[in-house]
């Protein structure tokens, strides 16, 4: 009896059809080389017209639905008291249960509002893992950002289903200093820095209990809360029969507030908010908002964008959408598996994170191997990705190692097809096949904070 041929990975079927298309162009190799030189070998500095498949970020890069575009047409651009804010506020209150909702133009603006009031010198703010702007806002206001993810988060091959979980014993040790030293605890859903990995409701409950015992408020970074809820529904006992909003409320009911970039699970191109149960804090947040963002019923946004976010947050709860969304990530992972290419396992919620230390084991941190890999993926096929390693998170002198050395392939929502992802996998495979020839780079220019956005590099050798 003949053995059956290996089954090709089955791409997920889109739960939508296409109404509008945007032309993309594959620049020639000569154009790609010129673009790299002009950009100082920093992919953030490359023009979008010179990118074929853009996996730099899933933030603000989603395709909006027909209902969202229709909602944009009923924007009430009144300076104060817009009906679109009333809809936005009611949506956030219904989904989260937080009574006070303060809009902002994006997630980092929400972080600035929160940490400028709660952070202060001599304090520590723990998180499962701070992402780049979160850490920058914590440290800009004098606090120290501390990561407390479980050990499995650093074992990139571990199959642990909730690698975004907080190490509760370590958190309890930190909380013994009390509210004067720990003004708040934050948990990021999903854990972006560690590979888009989810947090369980059970772990979040234990975190809440530790915070309550210490008298310290718990806040969530909820920008990917719907994706986190999908994993909880799939992996955590007793959750399979619950809806995404029900699972979300289980998490939000444990917290005192949240920040959100609506550019992720709000399915919009701009927007965010801070939400809280603390009336006094909300009043102070609104004062800050007026100074830096705008009036409390628009928060630096066009009111039509508030309407689109209201609709998008509900669309993000749809199981068919989420199954396709997570399915795209898993499909790309399955294509990489065929070539035995190392990445963070299990695949996360919004992208694939290549394991750079196994991809380029001979390049030391001083050679910025993650940045080198990002450059090669663009050079090979005009695929733009982002380094999450020594450039983004290395402390001290350039080249100091980071806890993790990753390259993130963040998949925009409702934008690319399975054929696009197959192309990405082929580009990664071609770079993998010639990995022994890849040289490192050196950093020749960098700002003090958030250097990965504007730093410049030169190839070694």
What features would you describe in this structure?
The chain has 16 helices and 14 strands. With 461 residues, it is of the alpha/beta class. The protein folds into two domains: 29-51 and 319-459, Aspartate Aminotransferase, domain 1, CATH 3.90.1150; 66-315, Aspartate Aminotransferase, domain 2 (3-Layer(aba) Sandwich). The protein has a five-stranded mixed sheet with strand order 2-8-7-6-5, with helices on both faces. The chain is globular.
What is the architecture of the largest domain at the second tier of CATH? 3-Layer(aba) Sandwich
Number of domains: 2
Say what the CATH topology of the largest domain is: Aspartate Aminotransferase, domain 2
Radius of gyration: 22 Å
| Strand-residue proportion | 5-15%
Given helix and strand content, the structural type is alpha/beta
CATH level-4 homologous superfamily of the largest domain:
Type I PLP-dependent aspartate aminotransferase-like (Major domain)
What is the strand arrangement across the widest sheet? 2-8-7-6-5
The description of the largest β-sheet is: 5 strands, mixed
Instruction: Assign an overall shape.
Output: globular
Number of helices: 16
The CATH class of the largest domain is Alpha Beta
């Amino acid at each position: 009896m003949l053995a059956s041929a290996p089954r090709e990975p089955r791409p997920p079927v889109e739960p939508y059809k296409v109404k509008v298309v945007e032309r993309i162009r594959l620049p020639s190799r000569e154009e790609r080389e010129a673009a790299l030189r002009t950009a100082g070998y920093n992919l953030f500095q490359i023009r979008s017209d010179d990118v074929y498949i853009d996996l730099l970020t899933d933030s603000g890069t989603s395709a909006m639905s027909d209902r969202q575009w229709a909602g944009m047409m009923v924007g009430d651009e009144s300076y104060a008291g817009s009906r679109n804010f009333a809809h936005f506020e009611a949506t956030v209150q219904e989904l989260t249960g937080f009574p006070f909702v303060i809009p902002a133009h994006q997630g980092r603006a929400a972080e600035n509002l929160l940490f400028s009031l709660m952070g202060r010198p001599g304090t520590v703010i723990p998180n499962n893992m701070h992402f780049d702007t979160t850490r920058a806002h914590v440290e800009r206001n004098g606090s120290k950002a501390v990561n407390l993810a479980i050990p499995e988060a650093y074992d990139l091959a571990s199959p642990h289903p909730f690698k975004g979980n907080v190490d509760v014993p370590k958190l309890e040790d930190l909380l013994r200093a009390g509210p004067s030293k720990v003004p708040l605890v934050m948990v990021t859903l999903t854990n972006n820095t560690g590979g888009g990995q989810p947090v369980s409701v059970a772990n979040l409950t234990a975190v809440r209990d530790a915070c309550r015992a210490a008298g310290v408020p718990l806040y969530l970074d909820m920008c990917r809360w719907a994706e986190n809820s999908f994993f909880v529904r799939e992996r955590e006992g007793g959750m399979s029969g619950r809806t995404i909003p029900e699972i979300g409320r289980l998490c939000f009911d444990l917290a005192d507030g949240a920040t959100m970039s609506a550019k992720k699970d709000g399915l919009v191109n701009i927007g965010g908010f801070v939400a809280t149960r603390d009336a006094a804090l909300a009043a102070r947040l609104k004062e800050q908002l007026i100074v830096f963002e705008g009036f409390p019923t628009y928060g630096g946004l066009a009111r039509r964008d508030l309407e689109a976010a209201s609709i998008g947050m509900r669309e993000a709860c749809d199981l068919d959408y989420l199954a396709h969304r997570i399915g795209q990530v898993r499909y790309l992972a399955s294509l990489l598996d065929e070539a035995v290419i190392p990445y963070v396992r299990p695949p996360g919620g919004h992208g694939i994170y290549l394991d750079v230390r196994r991809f380029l084991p001979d390049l030391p941190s001083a050679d910025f191997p993650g940045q080198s890999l990002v450059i090669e993926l663009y050079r090979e096929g005009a695929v733009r990705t982002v380094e999450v390693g020594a450039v983004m998170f290395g402390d001290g002198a350039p080249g100091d190692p980071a806890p993790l050395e990753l390259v993130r392939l963040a998949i925009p929502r409702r934008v690319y097809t399975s054929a696009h992802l197959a192309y990405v996998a082929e580009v990664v495979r071609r770079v993998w096949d010639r990995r022994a020839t890849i040289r490192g780079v050196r950093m020749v220019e960098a700002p003090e904070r958030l250097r990965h956005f504007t730093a410049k590099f030169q190839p070694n050798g």
